[in-house]
Design a protein that fits this description.
This protein is α/β, with parallel strands linked by helices. Among the domains are: 227 residues, 3-Layer(aba) Sandwich (Rossmann fold); 123 residues, Transcription Regulator spoIIAA (2-Layer Sandwich), CATH 3.30.750.210. It has 20 helices and 19 strands. The longest helix is centred in the last third of the chain and has 21 residues. It is globular, with a radius of gyration of 25 Å. 44% of the residues are buried.
């Protein structure tokens, strides 16, 4: 019988003990005697969040296809188990083998959100692995990270041996081959291995690069310690989506995951060019999977999992060129087995609403728009490409189709934003509510309409045209939210309007992490030592501890968030080549200040530089 690492007594004391027992449907077990490299994939958040992440499922499938590699998984223990593990000195363990992480060769941590940074240290701490890269020896695993947060890895550089820049399908095999070769040579040396790994495309080894600072605190230089290392790290990109691995037998969790459904990734990248959107830039160029391949994947995944829902995954599903054929196939195929279809990221047009009416319960569901800004001027600033006419037309079609609930997503604190732009948010919500009452006859209404407006606070991200923008103090963000709330109450249809806004202090911290440099590592380490982890969860986030950490480490958060950067300043992430030219970002930054729109990639090539990858939509430009 398979032995569990945790005793029954401990499992009975913690919430959702099934998070820690492994052995789920489609999980992979191997004979240790037959493998050369043990890899543990880590998502630094609770099991239900991590099990919803498609990227881990893809790499898990890819790595385990190799007969000489065994890839297992680990997630952040919830605070109840964390406390027990610290009290009883229990080592963190992998789900598949139920063995301590310290016994592994490599641990790969995916970084999806800056507010999970202290959970990185939780993972290492509970694994009894030194938190700082400089303290590790030949006996410790190699600690890697990947994911969108690695496009500025400097705030967490002190904790990682290797940072993978780009899409994981491309360079891991070369890294694994190197490690196995070095180990089999009988003369493995961690530092020598890292030096050789730093020459593999897409791999950044922070310890092999030096940073110096000018008197004003900005970066003066960033250079490799050895002449045989690259000055810049090139982002890795999958050029043939159909040829890349995909998990047709994904792991089915025992505990209900946040995204508890089968997932079809239909494409990567986006054609739209929103200036605030990091994903839309760093995943360029737009690349699609063929519709016939996706049809086959859908059948295989549903057969191997038993899921009763399937979803499409992409940044903008409406831009998939074969969407109609795929959706019509899914409606027919899923109808046979009573499987629901989830269709996120759709533009609200006649086709989308027709499809939604076939797959959703209109009385319970809502339609979602993401105008991002209330005024047309601000939508031009951010290059949203969505007019007020588009919004009203989509809403009217939705109301005519039987919907009476609309969700609207906005950002506050965008560059050049004025009070008039802020007030435009509830004014737009009121206009949509008025449209419902003006165009839907009373006898055909599903009750009162409900317009829910949600605002997040803008955070400038690396490799976007807004990477140079300034932020605001948290008091200013809250003042802007108050303007929205007060203006909403003045609207004629205010009883049909609801308003929600994001935490301002979380936004400040996210902004520091997004654009910080290596000096921020000290703050993260200090905060963890004072008890900060699970900062992405409101009930565990303690901003006062973070303020104390900045003070104790002598780091001023305002340096990273309050000033607009000069386009000539060396940014902490400038050593990364994402395939997008700097002059494109500068050009877009200037166009934003003048509220000038840039056409999407399908309408016109704007010379961003992504054509250097010779794939996807760039081949049709």
């Amino acid at each position: 019988m398979r032995k569990l690492f945790l005793s029954d007594d401990i499992l009975m004391r913690v919430e959702k003990s099934a998070r820690y027992i492994g052995n789920e449907v489609n999980s992979v077990n191997k004979d240790l005697a037959s493998i050369d490299l043990r890899f543990c994939m880590c998502f630094p958040d609770v099991y239900e969040i991590g099990m919803s992440h498609l990227g881990i499922q893809i790499l898990y499938e890819m790595f385990n296809r190799r007969p000489d590699v065994w890839c297992e998984r680990v997630y952040s223990p919830w605070p109840d188990l964390h406390e027990i593990m610290k009290e009883k000195d229990i080592h963190l363990f992998a789900l598949e083998s139920q063995e301590p992480l310290k016994n592994f060769d490599m641990i790969g941590i995916t970084l999806q959100y800056e507010m999970c940074y202290t959970n990185i240290l939780q993972i290492l701490d509970l694994s009894h692995i030194p938190l700082l890269q400089t303290d590790r020896t030949n006996e410790d695993p190699i600690i890697l990270c990947g994911g969108p947060c690695t496009y500025n890895p400097e705030p967490i550089a002190a904790f990682f041996d290797i940072v993978y820049i780009g899409e994981g399908e491309e360079s891991y095999d070369e890294l694994f081959d190197l490690y196995i070769s070095e180990r089999k040579s009988g003369a493995y040396d961690r530092n020598e291995f890292l030096h050789k790994a730093a020459k593999i495309p897409g791999l950044y080894v922070p310890s092999l690069y030096e940073v110096s600072y000018a008197d004003d605190g900005t970066i003066a230089s960033f250079t490799p310690k050895y002449p045989d290392l690259p000055m810049t790290i090139r982002r890795m990109v999958v050029t043939d989506m159909d040829a890349s691995p995909y998990p047709t037998k994904p792991i089915v969790p025992y505990v209900q995951a946040i995204q508890d459904r089968a997932v079809l990734e239909i494409m990567r990248g986006c054609i739209r060019g929103c200036r605030f959107c990091q994903a839309g830039m760093i995943y360029r160029p737009n690349r699609e999977r063929s519709v016939e391949l996706l049809k086959g994947y859908a059948k295989e995944i549903l057969a191997s999992t038993g899921y009763d829902e399937i979803s499409l995954s992409s940044l903008s599903s409406s831009d998939y060129t074969q969407l109609r054929e795929l959706v019509e196939f899914l409606i027919e195929e899923c109808g046979k087995s009573k499987v629901n279809i989830s269709l996120p990221s759709l533009r609200i047009d006649s086709f989308s609403l027709d499809v939604m009416s076939k797959v959703q319960d209109i009385r319970k569901s809502s339609v979602t728009f993401a105008p991002e800004a209330g005024s047309q001027r601000m939508r031009s600033v951010i290059n949203k490409g969505l007019t007020e006419e588009d919004i009203f037309s989509g809403a009217q079609k939705a109301f005519a189709g039987g919907w009476n609930k609309v969700k609207l997503y906005f950002m506050l604190g965008l560059p050049t934003e004025t009070e008039e732009d802020i007030k435009a948010i509830p004014i737009l919500g009121n206009a949509i509510a008025a449209l419902y009452y003006d165009t839907v006859p009373k006898e055909q209404r599903n009750g009162k309409c409900q317009i829910t407006m949600s605002t997040s606070f803008f955070v400038p991200k690396p490799f976007t045209p807004f990477q140079w923008a300034s932020m605001f103090p948290k008091e200013e963000y809250l003042a802007r939210a108050k303007i929205v709330n007060d203006t909403m109450k003045e609207q004629l249809n205010h009883k049909s309007l609801r308003y929600q806004w994001h935490q301002a202090d979380v936004t400040i911290l996210e902004g520091v992490f997004a654009r910080g440099d290596r000096r921020v590592s000290d703050v993260i380490l200090y905060a963890y030592e004072q008890g900060c982890f699970f900062d992405a969860w409101g009930e565990y986030f303690d901003y006062q501890k973070w303020e104390d950490a900045f003070a104790a480490c002598g780091v001023d958060p305002d340096f990273y968030i309050m000033r607009e950067r000069d386009t000539e300043e060396i940014l902490p992430w400038d050593f990364i080549d994402v395939g997008i030219k700097k002059d494109f970002f500068v050009r877009e930054w200037e166009k934003a200040k003048n509220a000038v729109i840039t056409e999407n990639c399908r309408a016109k090539c704007n010379g961003c530089g992504a054509m250097s990858y010779s794939c996807g939509i760039c081949l049709r430009a």
